[in-house]
Amino acid sequence: MSSEQKLASEIISSAGIESDIFKQKDIAHLLIHHDKVVGMHAVDGLEIKTEQIKDGIKIDLRLRKGTKVKNPVQMCFGMMPKTGVQRIVMNAVVEKDAEIHVLAHCTFPNAVDVQHLMDATLTIEENASYTYNERHVHSEQGGVKVVPKAKIHLGKHARYITDFELLKGRVGLIDIDYETDCDAESTLEMNMRVNATGDDIVKIREVGHLNGAHSHGVLLSRVAVRDNAQAEVYSELTASAPFARGHVDCKEIVQDNGIVSAVPIVKVNHPKAHITHEASLGSVDSKQLQTLMARGLNEDEATDMIIQGLLR
Amino acid sequence: MGILEVKKLNLRMNGKHILHDVSLDVWEGHVHALVGTNGAGKSTLASAIMGLEGYRGVTGDIFFNGENINDLAIDERARKGITFAWQEPARYEGISVADFVGAGIPKDEADKEAVIIDSLSKLGLRPDDYLNRAVDETLSGGERKKVELASIIAMNPPFIMLDEPDSGIDVATLERMAEAIKILKAKGTTVLLITHSLAVMKQADHAFLMCDGQIIEKNTADKIIPYFEHNCIPCIHKNKPDIEEAREKIQ
């Protein structure tokens, strides 16, 4: 086995993905370890170009007009060493009428002092669809600093759905900054789910501009902080066109000495636009907790079950 | 001696005397109804028996199977074999029906999945349709009540308190509920129904008539129900019960 194959195998295994997926010809994939591409496979209509840059990789991804990629594209970004920096610069274009679903696995299982920096620009053209599920595996020490930034543009009737989920390990520091411009009739959904413990720090900035008529946007955040963890969630949604509709939904649970702040900003610049907002911060809901305790779960078990549900 | 004995229970909340010297015995394997109009103190009494937050500051004693449980937390009371279903069940984001119904199943149960499926089926909930659904606002109020009762059937405790089991549900669901209560009784489960509904009361063997935070009379359900129907709907005493007169009429 070559060193690249070995690294690819380690990344796949640490991300908890079935390795057979990467042998299938109808499933596109891109595997990156630190600043090296250790596996890549494209399918018809999908172009992936990569270029090594300092501490990372620049990726140009283009999905050709009308291409509907049947199976989710598997992307893995990993760092096996305990220390280091990984920088990913991505420019993705989903052309008119095309559809793609990306499963991005970010895995840093041994991290003591690792930085994962992502700088992405996404253009989703008219009537195209891009779904991006980002799943993280971190070390138990929490020695990871994850800083993903993305600028997204949705064309007319385009659709962009993203969710961020930490599957395993401690957060460390997460500093997310996603901003989206939405043209007419487009749909935006951004979902962030993070469970912070120890001295983890979570910063989330999610912004949506509903610039086009009949555009829709939902910004959802679910954050649980325990021990001495801290979280700041900034969600901003602006509706500036007739019949633009949006909803901002923050639910943050605080336990122990955790601190959480949520700043939801909703702006409406057109009399026929409408945005709603819902937020709850604080302890676990008393009725939920007592119902589970009345089934015999102790307070910690009941709290865990409620938080796991919230982050699912 | 009953499975549950409440002796001279008093509860004051925010300066108000809510429960007045409440005493009652609940008999093992029987269905009981705690009957009264809105505000009589029925749910408060059940909440105090379960030890819910805000209802722990009682004086008097609560015995379960002969053991004083006044100082036990909710989960400790549950592990002794007491549980409670809320009038308006909680909603849970992201928790599936399977996980919720399975939450109270004893850890040593070998086939947890079979118990969950059986419990849902008893309430007429097709497992294929419900197991993976979340216990959230996508379920109707009636469905959530059935899921809550399924979770209690799965837990299989010896003593169950159901607060207004018929509120917000349709006739067909009410029939299912009644069937479920019969199943529980057949299994030897002791049930306390908290209700002001005549349809629900009729499922009980015994009844406690409650008014203004007091137990007015304890008797068989068939004696309490006619009195309740003619004197309490609407209340002819304006919630200032004439206890002696009530007892005389019932007896």
Beta-sheet strand percentage of chain A?
over 45%
Secondary structural class of chain B: alpha/beta
Helix content of chain A: 10-25%
Low-confidence segments of chain A: none
Kindly, what is the distance between the CA atoms of the first and last residues of chain A, rounded to a whole number of angstroms?
Answer: 37 Å
What composes the largest sheet of chain B?
A: 6 strands, mixed
Give the strand line-up of the largest sheet of chain B.
Answer: 6-7-8-3-9-10
The gyration radius over C-alpha positions of chain A equals: 20 Å
- How many structural domains of chain B? 2
The gyration radius over C-alpha positions of chain B equals 18 Å
Helix count of chain A equals: 3
CATH level-3 fold name of the largest domain in chain B: Rossmann fold
Percent in strands of chain B:
25-35%
Please report the distance between the alpha carbons of the first and last residues of chain B.
22 Å
Question: How does CATH name the architecture of the largest domain in chain B?
Answer: 3-Layer(aba) Sandwich
Q: Overview of this structure, please?
A:
The complex is a heterodimer of chains A (312) and B (251). Chain A is 11% helix and 57% strand. Chain A has three helices and 19 strands. Chain A has helices at 3-15, 286-293, 299-311, and strands at residues 29-33, 36-41, 46-53, 56-63, 73-78, 83-94, 99-108, 113-124, 129-138, 144-154, 159-168, 173-182, 187-196, 201-210, 216-225, 230-239, 245-254, 259-268, 274-282. Chain A is globular. In chain B, the strands form two sheets. Chain B has a six-stranded mixed sheet with strand order 6-7-8-3-9-10, with helices on both faces. Chain B has two domains: 1-81 and 157-178 and 188-251, P-loop containing nucleotide triphosphate hydrolases (Rossmann fold, 3-Layer(aba) Sandwich); 90-156, no CATH class. In chain B, 36% of the residues lie in helices and 25% in strands. Chain B is built from ten helices and ten strands. The interface between A and B is medium-sized, with 24 and 29 residues.
